[in-house]
């Protein structure tokens, strides 16, 4: 696993939306914007599955994902890759579900996507674009 630095966590905290990239077992890509996203610790991202279809199916077939982190206020750009677990019960799932449902009961919080960070790359333009940071 890879642990985010304090600078990376600052970038993560300022992103307005988190595009989640997945691929089927045959390599068909999918990307979808996510809003219910938490950096739980230096090595773990949680994403609430409220309305996932293709992304969820892809992660069931191929348990890897990438999260793109950028926004006008981030002063940086990261691509974070990791191993995926899909949880539908247990303390972490219940904690996520409570947080989502506290915002609005219109969000079903069907499952918790837990991503264990394995790699981080820069996606800022210029020299070094695409370089592995962790």
From TrEMBL:
Task: List residues of the Pyridoxamine 5'-phosphate oxidase N-terminal domain.
Answer: 4-122
What SUPFAM superfamilies would the database entry show?
FMN-binding split barrel
The protein's superkingdom reads: Archaea
Q: Which InterPro entries match?
A: Pyridox_Oxase_N (IPR011576), Split_barrel_FMN-bd (IPR012349)
Q: What is this protein called?
A: Pyridoxamine 5-phosphate oxidase
């Amino acid at each position: 696993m890879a642990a985010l630095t304090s600078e990376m966590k600052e970038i993560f905290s300022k992103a307005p939306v988190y595009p989640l990239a997945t691929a089927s077992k045959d390599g068909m890509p999918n990307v979808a914007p996510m809003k219910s996203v938490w950096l739980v610790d230096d090595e773990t991202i949680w994403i609430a599955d409220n309305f996932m279809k293709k992304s969820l199916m892809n992660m069931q077939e191929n348990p890897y994902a990438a999260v793109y982190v950028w926004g006008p206020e981030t002063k940086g750009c990261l691509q974070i890759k990791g191993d995926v677990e899909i949880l539908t019960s247990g303390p972490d799932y219940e904690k996520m579900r409570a947080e989502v449902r506290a915002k609005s009961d219109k969000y079903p919080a069907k499952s918790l996507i837990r991503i264990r960070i394995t790699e981080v790359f820069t996606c800022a333009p210029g020299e070094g674009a695409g370089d592995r940071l962790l």
